[in-house]
Amino acid sequence: AEYAAMPIILPNGELNAQRFVPPPSDKKAVVKFQDRYWYGVGGSNPDSILFSELDEPESVPVENEVIIQENTTSTDSLKAMIPLGGMLMLMQSRHAYGLTFSKQPLLDAQVSQIAYRGCLNQRCFDVHGGFAYVMDQYGVYQIGPSGATKNLSDAIDDLFRKELDLGRTDWNFVRIDPKTKTLRAF
To answer: b/e string for 93-121 if b means 16 or more Cβ within 10 A?
Structure first.
């Protein structure tokens, strides 16, 4: 009688009492996007991303899952997640998808393919001036919130074809110095 009971379901139909599930331990990347934390890259289902409850990064019930449905003829897996404006870019090695939602991802999340470029890993991008600068197996490129891409590494294209060891992509990363407007790919 001294304690108020916690409802299992809220009046709007959302899960309440059983939402306090710790984040997954098998995901390699975590990003913040629209007051939620998103967990992805790796794990038993590499094209599955999980999201936290609103403003509760430690509450990630298994029902809070979005799966990237592969619509291409080749298999690919999630390599990076890039928050950019009102979109969470889900980057596979050769494909880019955009995730958007209005209020509740379980009810209104939409994932659509936005480009036929990808990302090597969670460290192979940086955001500057409203654009993401990304490195994939074909080089470095710029991608905007609409999905329009612009190749930036044509002058050194031979280095990506001959020198980049795609078996060791965990070591690569991209950084931008905003003062000098210099992009470095390592």
So the answer is: bbbbbbbbbeeebbeeeebebbbebbbbb
